[in-house]
Write a structure and sequence with these properties.
The protein is α/β, with parallel strands linked by helices. It contains ten helices and five strands.
């Protein structure tokens, strides 16, 4: 943590410990130790599909009064779970962690999106989120397919492939254990690129 504190970063995203699957008490002790050691805001990240254990609600309740507790990123795919975190976190913001679910999360009280798609489509995703929050969004099928294209293989392989195809970066190569070779075709992200940019252009007319 001492090394990270020296870097020019604005906040921390802290995930439930991998593999160990700690319960509420273990998570509370783990996160509190980390949060005590830093000086910047902390977003706790619930992503059981990657960690094998959900962020414990009791841990959230205890940690919500910590001076460095900022927000939660909820990526379990459940609107009902998001509501539970919203209730447990003492009024702190809860962000959607699934691009495709932003319309439903916004309706349920989420304040924004921590997005994968925004790495490829920053302006488009900003408009998407704004429309979800002000309840004017009406392109659910398009954005669901676009968001799904970012996960045809493990993130961030697809978005890096798209950026390389567009010439924004030189190579789609990944650091092991991820590999660009797990995505033999760029068709899914290129089709999504066409759909999203077309939607954005139409909305901006």
């Amino acid at each position: 943590m001492n090394y990270l504190e020296k870097l020019n970063i604005h906040a921390y995203l802290m995930v439930t410990p991998l593999y160990a699957k700690p319960g509420a008490k273990g998570q509370t002790a783990w996160f509190k130790t980390l949060m005590d050691a830093v000086t910047r805001p902390v977003m706790l990240y619930n992503v059981p599909g990657r960690t094998a254990a959900p962020l414990a609600l009791d841990a959230v309740k205890t940690l919500s009064t910590h001076k460095n507790f900022w927000a939660i990123k909820e990526a379990s795919g459940s609107v009902e779970k998001m509501k539970e975190y919203l209730s447990a976190c003492g009024g702190k913001p809860v962000y959607c962690g699934d691009d495709a679910l932003m319309p439903e999360f916004a309706q349920a009280g989420s304040v924004g999106l921590v997005s994968v798609a925004s790495n490829a489509w920053p302006k488009e995703t900003h408009l998407y989120v704004d429309q979800c929050l002000n309840k004017s969004f009406d392109a659910k099928e398009l954005w669901t397919k676009a968001a799904d294209s970012m996960f045809v293989v493990s993130n961030p392989v697809p978005v890096k492939r798209l950026l390389a195809e567009r010439g924004d970066i030189k190579s789609a190569r990944m650091v092991p254990p991820l590999s660009h070779e797990d995505m033999p075709s760029a068709d899914p992200v290129l089709m999504a690129q066409k759909a999203v940019t077309g939607w954005y252009e139409g909305e901006m007319k």
